[in-house]
Write a structure and sequence with these properties.
Number of domains: 2
Order of helices and strands: HHEHHEEHEHEHEEHEHHEHEHHHHH
Distance between the termini: 32 Å
Oligomer: single chain
Structural class: alpha+beta
Mean pLDDT: 79
Largest sheet: 6 strands, mixed, barrel
Strand order of the largest sheet: 2-3-8-5-7-6
């Protein structure tokens, strides 16, 4: 039995070689089916990696609280315009503040820590170079939460955090721009109106443009980080009304300017709440929302988001989409298998005399079956290999021209190849059995 397989396989290859063009057309269905399956699985794998990268950027087990500038809505009625005294007093909110962060950290259970952020657009200046950048005021938990790593230097010390020291940690892009070819640690860079001493440099972090836009995050490599106490005391504290703020407001009112009808009154630009267990996140998020609403006098000028749940929902959506695409691609494989069976049946009818000659010379029905099954499998293997190559090309083309991240995994290649061989075997059995059952005497007389 095992000795017959190579011999019959050789005969099958010779028969395919004699009908190269027909075999090529037969293998097209398998070729495009395998290529489609590989490229669709590559899209799914790329989407999964993007989700993991986004989750890593946003942090696991995190709840994000962001401020919302309060919008005033309502209808102007004749009664109100005639009697302004009836207008209800506006509710006052202090906005998102450090006190909110401390309350969440101290009161709500299952909260490991709260990491506040303040982001200010400013101008970085050094050695005749200037560039717009973002100065970010952070707490001691920030780098732990974002999983940033230092390329050189140190993180902020407790003394620097508590005493509002004029120090900073710079992103790798800032180092490249302002400190080319020199050691930045211990040197100073001007952010806005204040000189800051560099105590650390972050490792470069590659972030795709799609993640920057989709997640609303910054290019961290071009940020300058300083203790949040330094930011509030030495730069900007939006919770305080200064003489300059009053003068600017009066100037706008005198000039009838309404460009800043709703100024940003929030002290913080972001709160990241780390929860001890993902199972508690929905309940903790609900408690945070209700607590902040009470603290802000029933003014909902904040937004509470659970990134992991949003990303999980996005992953489910993409998975369903990829399953649909994979199912459509698999239809091509089935159609290719039907094509193989159809062509092999036609081949049996064309080669009845050849079958009769082999049977008359001592070939058994098993030999004939092995020959035609081997032909079907050989066509499937050839189409599968060509499909794998085309799948790599299609995946690269999708990533380049459609800007969709793709990853071709060895698993997808192996699965596609096994499926193509299986289809050749399954759809080749019926024509092979039909060929083996031919009567040798009738076959020799067949014209």
């Amino acid at each position: 039995m095992w000795q017959k397989i190579p011999y019959n396989f050789f005969i099958a290859i010779e028969a395919i070689y004699q009908n190269k063009f027909r075999a090529f057309l037969t293998s097209l269905g398998i070729l495009f089916g395998v290529a489609s399956v590989i490229s669709m699985l590559a899209i799914g794998k790329g989407a999964q990696q993007e989700i993991l990268e986004q989750l890593r950027l946003l942090g696991t087990n995190n709840i994000i609280v962001t401020p919302v500038i309060k919008q005033e809505e309502g209808k102007v009625t004749d009664e109100i315009s005639e009697n302004p005294a009836k207008v209800e007093k506006k509710q006052f909110s202090t906005g998102l503040t450090l006190l909110d962060a401390q309350s969440i950290d101290n009161i709500i259970p299952h909260v490991d820590y709260v990491s506040p952020e303040i982001v200010v657009e400013t101008m970085a200046i050094r050695a005749g170079l200037r560039r717009s950048t973002k100065l970010v005021g952070i707490s001691s938990h920030y780098f732990e939460d974002t999983q940033f790593e230092l390329a050189m230097g140190n993180l902020f010390s407790q003394h620097q955090m508590e005493n509002s020291a004029p120090v900073c940690i710079i992103g790798n892009g800032v180092k490249t721009k302002f400190f080319p070819g020199e050691e930045p640690i211990g040197k100073r860079i001007k952010a806005g109106s204040l000189w800051l001493t560099v105590v650390g440099v972050l490792q470069e972090r590659h972030i795709s443009q799609s993640n920057i836009q989709h997640l609303g995050i910054r290019d961290y490599n071009m940020d300058i980080y300083t203790p949040i106490s330094t930011m509030l005391i030495r730069f900007k504290n939006r919770a305080l009304v200064t003489k300059q703020d009053i003068q600017q407001a009066n100037a706008r009112q005198n000039q009838n300017q309404s460009a800043e009808t709703n100024p940003n009154y929030h002290q913080l630009d972001r709160l990241t709440v780390r929860v001890s267990d993902v199972a508690f996140m929905p309940r903790v998020a609900d408690i945070i929302s209700r607590m902040l609403e009470r603290r802000h006098n029933d003014v909902v000028d904040f937004e509470v988001v659970i990134p992991e749940m949003l990303l999980a929902q996005e992953q489910r959506t993409r998975t369903i989409f990829n399953i649909v695409l994979g199912a459509i691609a698999s239809i091509s494989l089935i159609v290719g298998g039907i094509g193989i069976m159809n062509i092999m049946l036609a081949s049996v009818m064309e080669r009845i005399k050849e079958i009769g000659i082999r049977l008359s010379m001592g070939a058994t029905q098993q030999d004939i079956s092995l020959q035609f099954v081997a032909e079907a499998i050989a066509i499937s293997i050839t189409g599968g290999i060509a499909g794998i190559i085309l799948g790599f090309i299609m995946s690269a083309g999708i990533e380049k021209f459609a800007d969709i991240h793709t990853i071709v995994s060895p698993f997808s290649v192996l699965i596609s190849f096994i499926v193509s061989v299986t289809i050749g075997l399954v759809f080749g059995i019926f024509p092979a059995r039909k060929a083996a059952r031919q009567d040798p005497i009738v076959s020799l007389r067949y014209e």
